[in-house]
UniProtKB/TrEMBL annotation:
Transmembrane segments: none annotated. The keyword Chloroplast does not apply. Belongs to the aromatic-ring hydroxylase family. TetX subfamily. GO terms for molecular function: monooxygenase activity. The lineage of its organism: Bacteria, Bacillati, Actinomycetota, Actinomycetes, Micromonosporales. Consists of an N-terminal FAD-binding domain with a Rossman fold and a C-terminal substrate-binding domain. This is Flavin-dependent monooxygenase. Residues 70-101 are annotated as: Disordered. The keyword Hydrolase does not apply. Keywords: Cytoplasm, FAD, Flavoprotein, Monooxygenase, NADP, Nucleotide-binding, Oxidoreductase. It is found in: Cytoplasm.
Length: 376
């Protein structure tokens, strides 16, 4: 009998999993809440790491397409202080894919979607409940009344995962507030800002706050303001004037990034799961990506989600007759791999929004001299 696999969530992790399973001749249906691939913006760009995100794409047979879409020049990274002085400036080797090239999230998602059969994604299927069936597997209920059954359920449904509640009662905690703006067609409309940001990422580090900007493949700029988590209502951050007041005294060249935003700022709370979260294995169900180990957004989330997908797919392909053993093997390896990464991400997040962030980040990004070997 064919194993029916349901993947809740059509983000990068869920799509990578479906693609690699498909390459092994294992069918899966991805249930995605959005109405279509173009229903909403997919966010900014991300850097894919060779040992995780790029490895997953290699397993998916998509590394060539990735290289045609990625921007190795996007790895350029400048860190400034509030006066606009350069603290760190990292420039990649021109045209080199050996580091962590940038790719827009939308381009990466399209690349994955294009690699799947047309019926692999069920759009407009937001999972609202999953119930174990007496004979094994799960019954799924979707918003609007749709339902489906599966033998194996994989939660790739993000930080607010519905599937997670079947495995653990781990609670999320707020670690920061992120306010985002976008600037379209920057080269033509705001050439000074395009030059300031460059082809990659710009971080302006203050006391307990960061003003960041990221160049996108379509010529736009995504601006992000990171602040410590607090109890203020999100509406506080929807005003450019209020944001500019928070950066009073900063170099006007930097705060011009806020003024140039095309629309009102969009705030959201950044949450994380407790580091070291584990759950007792249950038959026919597991989690990948943010559903399994939601971390602060410091560069690991998408990469680890895609590696989760690759490792789970490999286990299922190796042992298709015993999916529970495959899931157990995946979970043990995933818990071991992600625990130190989650701890590191929490430390970096706290460091970036600390009063001494500028000094701490300079030390973090500056290679330390090695001690000379003792002489006899």
């Amino acid at each position: 009998m064919t194993m029916r696999i349901a993947i809740a969530g059509g983000g990068l992790g869920g799509l990578t999993l479906a693609r690699i399973l498909h390459r092994h001749g294992i069918g899966a249906v991805v249930y995605e809440r959005e109405a279509s691939r173009s229903a909403r913006s997919q966010g900014g760009s991300l850097d894919l790491h060779p040992e995780s995100g790029q490895q997953a794409l290699a397993d998916a047979g998509l590394i060539g397409r990735f290289r045609s879409e990625a921007r190795p020049e996007g790895e350029e990274h400048r860190i400034l202080d509030p006066a606009g002085r350069t603290l760190v400036h990292h420039k990649p080797q021109p045209g080199s894919f050996s580091g962590r090239p940038e790719i827009d999230r939308s381009a990466l998602r399209d690349l994955l979607l294009d690699s799947l059969p047309g019926d692999a994604v069920a759009w407009q299927h937001r999972l609202v409940a999953a119930m174990p069936r007496p004979d094994g597997g799960f019954g799924l209920t979707f918003d609007g009344g749709h339902s489906a059954d599966c033998d194996v359920l994989i939660g790739a449904d993000g930080g607010r995962s519905v599937v997670r509640s079947l495995l653990t009662d781990a609670t999320l905690s707020s670690v920061a507030t992120l306010v985002e703006l976008s600037i379209s067609d920057a080269d033509r409309r705001h050439p000074d800002l395009a030059e300031l940001v460059g082809p990659g990422n710009l971080w302006c580090i203050g006391v307990n706050q960061i003003l960041a900007a990221q160049r996108l493949g379509d010529g736009g700029i995504r601006v992000g303001i990171s602040l410590r988590a607090d109890d203020r209502h999100m509406d506080t951050y929807r005003s450019k004037r209020a944001l500019l007041d928070m950066f009073d005294g900063w170099n006007p060249r930097l705060t011009a990034l806020i003024e140039a935003g095309d629309s009102l700022p969009t705030p959201r709370r950044i949450e994380a799961m407790p580091t070291g979260t584990r759950w007792a294995h249950q038959p026919g169900i597991t989690l990948i990506g943010d559903a399994a180990h939601l971390m602060p957004p410091v560069g690991e989330g998408a990469n680890q989600a895609m590696l989760d997908a690759a490792e789970l797919a490999a286990e299922l392909a190796t042992n298709p007759a015993d999916p529970d053993s495959a899931i157990q093997a995946y979970e043990e390896a995933m818990f071991t791999r992600t625990h130190p990464i989650a701890e590191m991400s929490a430390r970096v997040q706290a460091m970036m929004l600390s009063p001494t962030a500028a000094d701490d980040i300079i030390r973090f990004f500056t290679p330390q001299p090695t001690e000379p070997a003792p002489t006899a």
